[in-house]
Amino acid sequence: MAGGPTTTGLATAVGAAGAFAFLAAGYKTPEAVAGEIAELRAAGRPFGVNVFVPTPVPVTEADFRRYASRIAPEGTAYGLDLAAAARTEDDDHWAAKLDLLRGDPVPVVSFTFGLPPAPVVRDLRRAGSRVLVTVTDPAEAAAAADLGVDGLVAQSGTAGGHLGTFTPDAPPPLRPLPDLLASLAGRTGLPLLGAGGIGGPQDVRAALAAGATGVLVGTLLLRADEAGTGRTHRDALADPGRDRTVVTRAFTGRPARGLHNDFVDRHEAAAPLGYPALHHLTRPLRVAAAQAGDADRLHLWAGTGWRGARDAPVADILTDLTRTL
Fold it and tell me: Which PANTHER family match (predicted)?
């Protein structure tokens, strides 16, 4: 979980509880990722690193300026001039992060947002890492399998945060995880890890019955004691007045699922596709809103199983999740 919730403390606690942890490389410098790898390696448990594949979604200068002007009043109270923001594009330090993972290999590297080039998969596997790719439909699964990856993360449309679709301008149908797994089972011969909408043991059982080798959880851990989730986000997850999640591009220019709030109501219909340009545009607003306790101007990423998240040590959450399996 990029953006702060996944800390080395959370990853260490996940490993100590007998599960497999992933560090988030997204939105971090290569130096920060290297430091976290060293810290987690010292804990003596295997882990993986998740990397965003640079798959920019272009936005014209005119559409960017139009949207920046539209949301500018949202930042006025925080002293932000969003209308004057530059249109920023980057690749999240892609080459440097790959150099790090080839030179200092970890047990597993997973990729999200698209397919890494075939030489990247080859080099990481030669270095000793197993390689996973996030997929959201059968066509993506087949393309990933053709690269020679070691497994697939099947992410349903019920997952929190960014949809891993390769085609954000035309995402696949937002089907429940068991349906997605059933559509992929047996097609590639690769292990399937199910992700999206896991809120309790019944969801794990359903995913395993549909063909998953295992499941991944994210939203369920957002309120864990060891998570780095900010207070405003934590409080929103526990707020009984938050009654649903929605898929929105209003915050980052790429479809992502989060708790419904006023910013989405005001701007979703007018928001262009444009990642990472819109991510950089709204980031100062999101940072200020989080610090001010303003949940209605913050991206409250959460999957459909968010009601299962609770304030507790991660070991207790994972034990309860698997107790009846």
Answer: NITRONATE MONOOXYGENASE-RELATED (PTHR42747)
